[in-house]
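pasting for ref
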Amino acid sequence: MASASEISERIVEAVMAQKLAPGARLGEQPLAMLFDCSRTVVREALTRLAARGIVTVSARRGWYVIEPSEDDAREAFEARRVIETGLIRSLKTVHKPALKRLKAHLAREKAALTGSDVGMRSFLLGDFHVCLAECLGNTLLADTLRDFTARTTLIAMLYQSPHNAVASCEDHVQIVAALERGDFAQAEQLMAAHIGTVQDALRLPIAYDPLAQLRQALAPVAGPVDASEAQVLRTRRARAARPAGAPASGTAPDEPSTYLGALL
């Protein structure tokens, strides 16, 4: 009988392997049958995932894998950029066992690139970031990154990211090489560029502006005016507002009007 923790982690792994798409339904009864447990245990697992932002629930429709919005996508990548670059920035040293584990992970990535298991390839490319946090000694951030990586995997699936897996693996190789050299500033820059490249590959739709047509229709016909033209317009309005025959403010009745001079 599976526990709630085991079920939730299996679902996260399936998301990272792109085996569960955004909006996929997660029925309590089918999951209970699959994992040979009660619906109560399944519900506990799904509730945990909802708190982690991986699934959502509707009173009438049940449980579903989230479908991140455009704002969710931007926020998720920004959060990963802050967390992962900050993690590297705080480094003083990287121990040999950590480097050995990272290199072993890279070897698995490269092997997956030449194989036919797309799910394993996707999982390993995402799990590299979790592995990096664990190797650098921060299990709390590793857990956080696991959830953010799962969410960015869903984002890539939803917005059809064409990001090259080979290029992504090569980015990981360069980051580990910089860490091994002790060049943490370079490793931080490489990580920031890597996350930015993946984000830039997303095909996010252009934000819809419901007032665009009205805004264009009500824009000034003549466009913006310079300072001298604005002064002329103000003078015209002031003259039009004066009673007939009344002199301009500050002008003697027998003096010639300055209005013509202003125009010239």
